[in-house]
Write a structure and sequence with these properties.
Elements lengths: L8 H12 L1 H12 L7 E4 L2 E4 L2 E3 L5 H13 L8 H11 E2 L3 H10 L2 H5 L24 E6 L10 E7 L4 E7 L4 H20 L2
Parallel strand pairs: 3-4
Antiparallel strand pairs: 1-2, 2-3, 5-6, 6-7
Bound molecules: zinc ion.
Length: 198
């Protein structure tokens, strides 16, 4: 009869890293000498746990990357968002700067960058704008920019009355832009008054 026992290589790797980690070894020695001062720590099979989470030395970058890959990029990880990934990782592991490492790993994940989902509510159905009751009541204004400078002008100021679809175009230059806008606002009012007068 053959018995197959699952064997985790990552645990072996963590043990190897711990044996080389000076800071974690000092912590283990401190726990072994006086564990009463460290009530939230548990030593099990050579591995030190804090609040039931396995302590990983910060210098064990390959192990940390392997954990992040398993908990985020693998089929089980499913490229979950930061909060979900952090909760999963923090259930089993702890290392200093864990939050920063998880955030950086997800930000650099190519799959997450290529498949971003919308963060906003659905836009809903398109609905037409209400029809204005009189001319110049509802006006659309815009600037068409990006033209080469010609005779001191490089911007077209566009005004459209929505009811009549009346189009007014005015040229604007870099110096005259402000004064032109003031002048145009008076022209706009003048047009409005002409149409509104009985
Ligand atoms: Zn991802």
């Amino acid at each position: 009869m053959v018995v197959t026992i699952p064997h985790s290589t990552i645990i072996d790797e963590i043990k190897d890293v711990i044996s080389l980690s000076r800071s974690l070894n000092q912590l283990i020695q401190k726990f072994q000498s006086d564990h009463a001062t460290m009530p939230q720590h548990i030593l099990k099979d050579g591995l030190l746990f804090w609040r039931h989470r396995l302590l990983i030395p910060v210098e064990a970058r390959s192990v940390i990357l392997q954990i992040l890959h398993e908990f985020h990029s693998s089929a089980i990880g499913g490229h979950a968002r930061f909060l979900c990934t952090r909760t999963r990782v923090a259930t089993y592991f702890y290392w200093s700067g864990m939050r920063r490492d998880i955030s950086a790993f997800i930000r650099q994940c190519q799959v997450c960058q290529q498949a971003k989902s919308l963060q906003t509510f659905p836009a809903g159905l398109l609905s037409p704008l209400p029809i204005p009751n009189q001319v110049w009541e509802d006006v659309i204004m815009d600037f068409i920019t990006g033209f080469p400078l010609s005779r001191g002008y490089f911007v077209i100021f566009v005004i459209i009355d929505r009811l009549l679809s009346l189009l007014i175009l005015h040229l604007c230059g870099p110096i005259l832009l402000h004064s032109k806008l003031l002048k145009l606002s008076s022209i706009l009012w003048l047009n409005c008054m002409v149409f509104l007068l009985p």
